[in-house]
Structure formats: C-alpha cells, structure tokens
Protein: Ribulose-phosphate 3-epimerase
Amino acid sequence: MGILTATLACADWLHLGDDLRALERGGCDWYHLDIMDGHYVPNLCLNFDLIRAVRAASPLPVDCHLMVENPGDYLPQLAQNRVERAAFHLGCPVDTASLLKELRRAGIAPGLALNPDEPVGALSPYLELCDWVLLMGVKPGFSGQSFLPGTVERVARLAALRRTLGRPLLIEVDGGIGPENGRACADAGADALVAGAFAVFSQPDGVEAACRRFRAAAFPGT
Structure:
C-alpha cells in the first residue's frame, strides 16, 4: 500500500486545523514537516511550537525533513515532540553515520535526503543505517517548483540498490509531485509521496477531494 504524506508548509496556516482534518478524511497517511534554518536553504519554515500543535491536534504520524546545516542540534526537540521519522541532507557538514545512529537511539527512524544533483550511489555507505530515503524531485527550499523528470529514473536506481541491500528501506519522493508523476514514481519503486501545493492545497474542490483524487491516481486500488 502506498503512503501519502502532505507537506504542511503548503497548508493554510490561518486554518491549519481545518486542513489537518481534511487531509485525514481524504486518506492522508502522514504529515510531512519541513524545517528550514535560513542557512542550508535561504528560507525559514516551521518551528517546534507548530509541530507540537500538530501533534496535539491529530493522531497521524509525522515525518520531518531537516533542511538545516546542523541537524544534530534539532534531535532533542524531535524526540520531545515524538516525531516518528526524520531525514537530514547527505551534504550537511556532520558525521553522517553517527547522526543516523543517534536518531535511532532517540527512537526516530533515521533517513537521508538526497538532492537532484547528488548521485544515488552516494547513499551506499549509509543505507545500512537508514530506514528511509527522501529523494528530492526539486531543489530543496522552495515550493511550487516543477518536478524534474530524471527523478523517476533515480527512484528506479535507488530501488535497485534496495534490492541489493536486502533489507527494508522506504523510498519517499518530495517536490513537484502530482498524480501522474506520482504514479510513475510509485511504479519505479517509491513507497511514499509528498503532496504539496500543486497536488492538494491549491485545488478548487478543496483539500479532502484533492487528497482522495491524488491517492486514487498515484496508488490505484488502495
């Protein structure tokens, strides 16, 4: 069964509770939370007060995408707010293997995010320590970008690495995802898709209907 997760960075923050309930009714499985520090990417996005409010308002799991230079600094608050999954970027100036192990010790499923200009093979030394990979379909840091078509091939390459690895590894794709390219990513081996402004939050018939339509198109039969 495919997993649909929606990025709350694209939600209506003045009516966030309404959007959370609409996502739940529409079949969303997780919430995707983007943390941006203004350094790794130019934008600032979300904070832990908002994450705390989301956790109090909804039972759905949370995956967290850390677009920050020093992801280890965020680990205590990730744990305090019961974030189920967190991914940081492969290119961060940290000891990647050590931080993945620290996330696991904190009870958080560890993951790595990979930018479009980074080769899939660069993940290989760390996949034994990962529970998931967040494969970017756009450059990180800005919503509304167009999906990069080479992403589908990158999903297929990562799925091939997963077969070689011989252990569970969830593949999630983030950025510019819509029903058609979402289906292509799922067919190539993606397990989870991040829905944003284009797919869910800007549709004229509302968040719930858009969420249902996205799921039916990207993951038919679920």
Q: What stands out?
A: The beta strands are 3-7, 30-37, 44-45, 62-67, 85-89, 109-114, 132-136, 170-174, 192-195. The two ends are 6 Å apart (CA to CA). Helices lie at 16-25, 48-57, 75-80, 96-105, 151-165, 179-188, 197-201, 207-218. The chain is about 35% helix and 20% strand.
